[in-house]
Fold:
Amino acid sequence: AQSVTQLDSQVPVFEEAPVELRCNYSSSVSVYLFWYVQYPNQGLQLLLKYLSGSTLVESINGFEAEFNKSQTSFHLRKPSVHISDTAEYFCAVWMDTDKLIFGTGTRLQVFP
Amino acid sequence: EAGVVQSPRYKIIEKKQPVAFWCNPISGHNTLYWYRQNLGQGPELLIRYENEEAVDDSQLPKDRFSAERLKGVDSTLKIQPAELGDSAVYLCASSRPTGITEAFFGQGTRLTVV
Structure:
């Protein structure tokens, strides 16, 4: 079975500071990993994904995540956050049965 | 390209009443999902459709929940009767039919059962 663990339910950080949101997965087969972002009162939007190839994937707004097979992790990072990055972030894994399984989410709160 | 459209955005009902949610997926997306997101939790899959066929409804509480996707486009999720514990955000998503791909989500319907 596949599952996703997001250890931090909340991450408070000051603006322009770096941030890392942790995600670990458990899977016995090939993995396909995603990060989704949910802004207040909005639906989920894909931030970035790892399907194959380079283990470092980037989004258009400065986030990046690295697939680490040995540590079964897919942590999300940004070197300098903005107030507008305040949102809920969900890590997800694509299961063999063609469905996305989500973690419980990490709320990123950026303070001025 | 229009995104996934859901209605209503918000719904407040009394317990034991019925409620229905509607979803229009992105054009050309054969796969449609209904997720439930409880407060402070990640979305949990309720049902997945491939065209008009429900291919995974193992997590759908079938005693009170039902769903349909007539003609393989729009979908409706119904709860009858609603219980207090059904209060959540109900998300619809769609994706292209082949391979591992991105799921596009609607804004969701926030249901409050009082």
Q: What stands out?
A: Chain B has a mean pLDDT of 92.
